């Protein structure tokens, strides 16, 4: 599956909460900005099923306001 | 061993993904910092060669960087240098390269022999096409051959098509699928301003305080622009109002969702104008200096009959007459018709009327695919003209396009029956300019438009057209009242050529199928919604014998004896064509950027004057083509824009006791139009595998229909059975259903109606009457 990167925007004052929520998901790598309300999210899944489950999980995070995609990489498994 | 390579590669790619995100973040939030250890050891570029291109898919026209490795496109990221998307990318964009590598990619020309497709050489296929065209012209005249292209044509594709058919052969049988999505926007611009395409640009998003979306599901159809709006909302106090007939992802993300009864947007726009005048919010000096008032014919019909003709008769009126006309559109009266509360009508009017609020109106298919599409475009402009909120940063009526080059190719090159690259065929001067640049006798160019798209397929049915060449589009999924036109194409004595990259229901009707080179497998340019022209180089080799649509046309033109006009060399033809084309647009009103600039930068916005893009037209602060201080709507001879008196008129077919529901059709974020490319991208196909019919939960409950149940939809054109969707992605208003059209296995257009706007000739895919039953 492609590895994807996103800009994750938290709801007001929810940056830490969002960081915790995302970090607790196995397929997510999260890098918070030091000085802005923004986190970078990198997701890495092995198959379609895992990808769908992850999507569902992300949708339930209440501190997440918006996910904006940045890039997708077509890994060897998918080519 | 393999695992370790893979692990290394995956971690390398992850670092690259991080780098892209950091770069995008830096563009959107100048000064943003990440912990130092995160930035350490980020890969530079590895083996990937990153090249810039406009995205293949929608009219937003995001700049993307495509990663090439060993001759194959393997990655996409948003280009942080692009002013369009500032590094962002949507789900379609970043999977776009996978669409090039589907298993059933067409790689060889196919000719139908005794009912079977047989592989052949490109030479033989092109020879056959040229000889068929010549034979058809000899036997039935030049108006028996036609070409049907696309808003996904590159600029050179459309240009050579127009030159061959209009200039050399001498027929105006040139149309493109943008007739089905953008024609009302064009006639709206022409009637209100005398010049096509938006006056503003995407940067308006950074300045506007209020966004009114007129029947436009931007969260799914223009996702990157919608992200930009949401991003503004996180920084400033802005309002997003979604005015629509269906609750969508856009409605859910907006500050206010207002649902109206189909077709009554005409009345709502007039009610907003009524309120603006009544409350003294008219910008009097702007209107006095820069506007005229006009009315046109009413009860103008719906184009349902063959050879339907309509010509408007504009007549000047006074402000007082216009004001009197609006008395029929008080919020109270319109509320009854539209189902929108008086409070909501006044709420919208108050934002448009507030001199301290900058307002951007955005629209796309809801307004354009409308039997009064031209009127609807006029009416939104009326609101902005009455308040003087136009042609300056943040005050912007903005008509969005669907396809990557509906503007660049169809509207600017002019691949519609009445158009030329500059002007229209009816105008002698415009024909002379074209004849000179094309190096053809001026008599070659016919002064009479022939068929708009729906009528072109009707002519194929009647037998007036015998030969049709279809490129980069899939009309056997997208034509309204499709069955009639599918049967037409299969009739004896018709010869159909289809150029495409995959088999589709349209290649099924072809006599010859040509494999095309896709996007970055060739060189080209697109023009997006904000007048931005963007260039892309050839980055990878096309598979098998695939050939660009441009070169296919050139090869056929040469075979037909037009070597002189199609003098281009294979290595340099795109440059030669572009340089020839931009001669049409020389000058301050439409000058195009030189190719070197397009190669260097992430596009340029025309008019490109003295080395600079013009972001806001008609305003002397920004537009060097203006000839007076302040505003100059120079598309009109007197420099004044027109405020149009346009009434509410009902839809062509409205629900009744036999067909009690409204049927609305449209798109979903995962799929690009008819899905011929995106359904071959596994992750997108899986996310949205087949079409469905969305029902209102109350209607579904009454009929005991649950998600997944089979539902039969019947209109006067036929019936279709599909699974129900209740309370999922979109929620139609009561007594309405919605069906996406991307699924070639469930052709919803078999039952839609081919009514169209009599001025623009654009069909209304959003409204017809349907019966809904549980199977
Ligand atoms: S918004 Fe449109 S142009 Fe931008 S990445 Fe998505 S499909 Fe491509």
Task: Furnish the topology, listing elements before pairings.
The complex is a heterodimer of chains A (79) and B (775).
Chain A: E1 3-10, H1 15-23, E2 28-32, E3 39-43, H2 48-59, E4 64-73
Antiparallel strand pairs in A: 1-3, 1-4, 2-3
Chain B: H1 2-28, H2 36-39, E1 49-54, E2 63-69, E3 72-78, H3 91-94, E4 110-113, E5 116-119, H4 122-140, E6 145-149, H5 155-169, E7 174-176, H6 183-193, E8 210-214, H7 218-221, H8 223-235, E9 239-244, E10 246-247, H9 249-253, E11 256-259, H10 265-278, H11 284-290, E12 291-295, E13 315-317, H12 319-325, H13 331-338, H14 342-353, E14 359-363, H15 365-368, H16 373-387, E15 396-399, H17 406-414, H18 428-438, H19 453-462, E16 467-471, H20 475-478, H21 482-489, E17 495-500, E18 512-515, E19 524-527, E20 532-536, H22 549-559, H23 573-581, H24 595-600, E21 604-605, E22 608-609, E23 612-613, E24 641-645, E25 661-666, H25 682-687, E26 693-695, H26 697-702, E27 710-715, E28 718-726, E29 731-732, E30 736-740, E31 768-774
Parallel strand pairs in B: 6-7, 6-16, 8-9, 8-14, 9-11, 12-24, 14-15, 16-17, 17-18, 25-30, 26-28
Antiparallel strand pairs in B: 1-2, 2-3, 4-5, 4-18, 10-29, 12-13, 19-20, 20-21, 22-23, 25-31, 26-30, 27-28, 27-31
Helix pairs in contact in B: 4-22, 5-17, 5-22, 5-23, 6-16, 10-13, 10-14, 10-16, 13-14, 19-21
The complex binds iron/sulfur cluster.
How would you describe this structure to a colleague?
The complex is a heterodimer of chains A (79) and B (775). With 79 residues, chain A is an alpha+beta fold. Chain A has a single domain (3-70), classed as Alpha-Beta Plaits (2-Layer Sandwich). Helices cover 27% and strands 35% of the residues of chain A. Chain A contains two helices and four strands, in the order βαββαβ. Chain A has helices at residues 15-23, 48-59; strands spanning 3-10, 28-32, 39-43, 64-73. In chain A, strands 2-3-1-4 form a four-stranded antiparallel β-sheet, with helices on one face. The N and C termini of chain A lie close together (9 Å). Chain B is α/β, with parallel strands linked by helices. Chain B has four domains: 10-101, Phosphorylase Kinase, domain 1 (2-Layer Sandwich); 110-181 and 404-534 and 547-567, Rossmann fold (3-Layer(aba) Sandwich); 191-286 and 312-403, Dimethylsulfoxide Reductase, domain 2 (3-Layer(aba) Sandwich), CATH 3.40.228.10; 661-752, Barwin-like endoglucanases (Beta Barrel), CATH 2.40.40. Chain B has 26 helices and 31 strands. A seven-stranded mixed β-sheet of chain B has the order 5-4-18-17-16-6-7, with helices on both faces. A six-stranded mixed β-barrel of chain B has the order 25-30-26-28-27-31. In chain B, helix 10 (265-278) packs antiparallel against helix 13, helix 13 crosses helix 14 and helix 19 (453-462) crosses helix 21 (482-489). The N and C termini of chain B lie far apart (55 Å). Residues 1-7 of chain B have low confidence and may be disordered. Classes of the chains: A alpha+beta (79), B alpha/beta (775). Chains A and B meet through strand 1, strand 2, strand 3, helix 2 and strand 4 of A and helix 1, strand 3, helix 8 and helix 25 of B. Strand 4 of chain A pairs antiparallel with strand 3 (72-78) of chain B, so a sheet runs across the interface. The complex binds iron/sulfur cluster (SF4). Iron/sulfur cluster is lined by residues 55, 57-58, 60-62, 85, 89-90, 92-93, 223-224 of chain B.
């Amino acid at each position: 599956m492609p590895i994807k990167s996103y800009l994750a925007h938290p709801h007001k004052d929810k940056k830490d909460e969002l960081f915790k929520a995302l970090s607790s998901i196995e397929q997510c790598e999260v890098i918070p900005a030091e000085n802005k309300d923004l986190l970078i999210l990198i997701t890495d899944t092995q198959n379609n099923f895992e990808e769908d489950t992850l999507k569902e999980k992300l949708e339930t995070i209440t501190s997440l306001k918006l996910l904006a995609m940045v890039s997708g990489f077509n890994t060897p498994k998918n080519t | 061993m393999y695992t370790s390579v893979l692990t290394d590669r995956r971690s390398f790619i992850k670092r690259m993904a991080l780098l892209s995100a950091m770069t995008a973040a830096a563009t959107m939030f100048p000064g943003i910092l990440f912990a130092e250890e995160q930035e350490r050891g980020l890969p530079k570029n590895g083996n990937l060669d990153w090249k810039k291109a406009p995205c293949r898919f929608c009219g937003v026209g995001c700049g993307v960087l495509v990663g090439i490795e060993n001759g194959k496109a393997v990655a996409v990221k948003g280009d942080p240098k692009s002013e369009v998307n500032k590094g962002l990318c949507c789900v379609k964009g970043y999977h776009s390269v996978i669409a090039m590598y589907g298993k059933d990619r067409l790689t060889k020309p196919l000719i139908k022999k005794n009912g079977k497709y047989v592989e052949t050489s490109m030479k033989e296929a092109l020879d056959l096409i040229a000889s068929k065209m010549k034979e058809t012209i000899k036997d039935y005249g030049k108006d028996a051959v036609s070409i049907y292209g696309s808003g996904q044509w590159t600029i050179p594709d459309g240009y050579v098509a127009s030159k061959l058919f209009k200039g050399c052969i001498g027929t105006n049988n040139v149309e493109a699928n943008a007739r089905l999505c953008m024609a009302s926007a064009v006639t709206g611009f022409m009637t209100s301003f005398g010049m096509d395409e938006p006056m503003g640009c995407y940067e308006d998003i950074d300045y506007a305080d209020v966004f009114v979306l007129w029947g436009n599901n931007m969260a799914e159809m223009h996702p990157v622009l919608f992200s930009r709006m949401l991003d503004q909302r996180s920084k400033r106090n802005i309002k997003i109002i979604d005015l629509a007939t269906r609750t969508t992802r856009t409605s859910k993300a907006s500050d206010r969702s207002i649902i109206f009864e189909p077709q009554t947007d005409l009345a709502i726009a007039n009610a907003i104008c009524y309120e603006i005048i009544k409350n003294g919010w008219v910008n009097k000096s702007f209107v006095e200096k820069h506007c005229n008032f006009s009315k046109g014919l009413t009860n103008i019909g719906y184009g349902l009959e063959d050879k339907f003709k309509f010509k408007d008769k504009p007549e000047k009126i006074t402000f007082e007459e216009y004001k009197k006309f609006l008395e029929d559109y008080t919020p109270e009266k319109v509320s009854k018709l539209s189902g929108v509360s008086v409070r909501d009508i006044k709420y919208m009017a108050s934002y448009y009327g507030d001199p301290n609020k900058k307002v951007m109106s955005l629209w796309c298919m809801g307004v354009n695919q409308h039997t009064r599409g031209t009127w609807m475009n006029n009416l939104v402009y009326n609101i902005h003209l009455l308040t003087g909120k136009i042609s300056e940063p943040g005050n912007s009526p903005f008509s969005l396009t669907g396809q990557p080059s509906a503007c660049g190719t169809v509207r600017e090159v002019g691949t519609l029956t009445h158009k030329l690259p500059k002007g229209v065929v009816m105008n002698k001067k415009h024909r002379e300019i074209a004849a000179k640049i094309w190096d053809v006798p001026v008599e070659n160019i016919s002064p009479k438009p022939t068929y708009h798209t729906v009528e072109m397929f009707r002519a194929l049915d009647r037998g007036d057209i015998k030969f049709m060449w279809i490129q980069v589009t899939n009309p056997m999924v997208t034509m309204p009242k499709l069955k009639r036109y599918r049967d037409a194409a299969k009739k004896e004595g018709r010869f159909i050529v289809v150029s495409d990259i995959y088999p589709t229901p349209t290649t099924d009707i072809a006599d010859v199928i040509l494999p095309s080179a896709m996007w970055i497998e060739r060189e080209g340019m697109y023009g997006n919604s904000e007048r931005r022209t963007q260039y892309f180089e050839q980055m990878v080799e096309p598979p098998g014998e695939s050939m660009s649509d441009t070169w296919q046309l050139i090869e056929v033109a040469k075979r037909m004896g037009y070597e002189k006009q199609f003098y281009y060399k294979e290595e340099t033809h795109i440059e030669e064509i572009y340089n020839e084309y931009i001669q049409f647009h020389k000058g301050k009103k439409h000058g195009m950027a030189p190719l070197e600039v397009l190669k260097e930068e992430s596009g340029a916005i025309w008019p490109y004057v003295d080395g600079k893009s013009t972001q806001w037209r008609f305003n002397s602060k920004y537009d060097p083509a203006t000839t007076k201080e302040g505003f100059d709507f120079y598309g009109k001879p007197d420099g004044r824009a027109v405020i149009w008196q346009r009434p509410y008129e009902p839809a062509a077919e409205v629900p009744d006791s036999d067909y009690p529901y409204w049927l609305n059709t449209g798109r979903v974020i995962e799929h690009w139009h008819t899905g011929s490319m995106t359904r071959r991208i596994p992750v997108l196909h899986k996310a949205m595998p087949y079409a469905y019919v969305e029902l209102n939960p109350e209607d579904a409950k009454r009929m005991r229909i649950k998600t997944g149940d089979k539902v039969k939809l019947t209109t006067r054109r036929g019936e279709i059975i599909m699974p129900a969707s209740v309370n999922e992605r979109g929620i139609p208003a009561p007594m309405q259903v919605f069906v996406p059209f991307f699924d070639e296995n469930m052709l919803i257009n078999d039952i839609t109606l081919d009514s169209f706007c009599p001025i623009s000739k654009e069909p209304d895919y959003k409204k017809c009457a349907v019966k809904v039953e549980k199977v």
